[in-house]
Amino acid sequence: MEAPIKAAYMEELRFGKRQQWAVAAATIALIAGAFHLAQSMAPLACWEKAVASNIVLVVAAGGIWLMFDLQTHLASTRTTIDPDEKRPWWRGMPIVFSLAIVQLISAVAVVYSLWRH
After folding, report:
1. Residue 41 three-state SS
2. Whole-prediction pTM value?
3. How far apart are CA 85 and CA 112, in angstroms?
4. In angstroms, rounded to a whole number, what is the distance separating the alpha carbons of residues 23 and 67?
5. Backbone conformation region of residue 26, classed left if phi is above 0, alpha if psi is from -120 to 50, else beta
6. Residue 14 class from Cβ within 10 Å (0-12 exposed, 13-18 middle, 19+ buried)?
7. Are 80 and 9 in contact, with CB atoms under 8 Å apart?
8. Confidence band (pLDDT; 50, 70, 90) for 3?
9. What is the mean pLDDT of the chain?
10. What secondary structure letter does DSSP report for 58?
């Protein structure tokens, strides 16, 4: 592979990794926004809590799905750069799992706080 092409693929890897962080941050921000909105409208009826909870869980699930979709893209790019790459999908997975867990914990904490009272 020629150097300029390889450099472009390496930039694609950097971009994908930045996007994973951006997705995690945006997901957590949306979850926090839903929490703030629900708290500012308190007290909520049961149906409002259910709707807010579902929105929070859908946002978290979507963010986690995007994280893993980006990881699949990164694996594909790594395989293009080096066809002999062993387990390209698993490279960087501790970070992806950590970001996914943080998103899930944020969602669970907000849903819990909505139904707490």
Report:
1. coil
2. 0.90
3. 43
4. 7
5. alpha
6. exposed
7. yes
8. confident
9. 94
10. H
Whether residue 1 has pLDDT greater than 80: no
CB-facing half-sphere around the CA of 37: CA atoms within 13 A: 14
Cα four-point dihedral sign 80, 84, 87, 92: negative
Query: What token pair was written down for 58?
Result: 């859908």
Longest dimension (CA), the chain: 62
Inter-residue contact 45 to 85 (CB < 8 Å): no
What number is the average pLDDT over the span 105-114? 96
From residue 80, how far is each of 47, 52, 84 by CA, in Å?
49, 42, 9
Q: From CA 86, how far away is CA 92, in angstroms rounded?
A: 13
Domain locations along the chain:
3-115
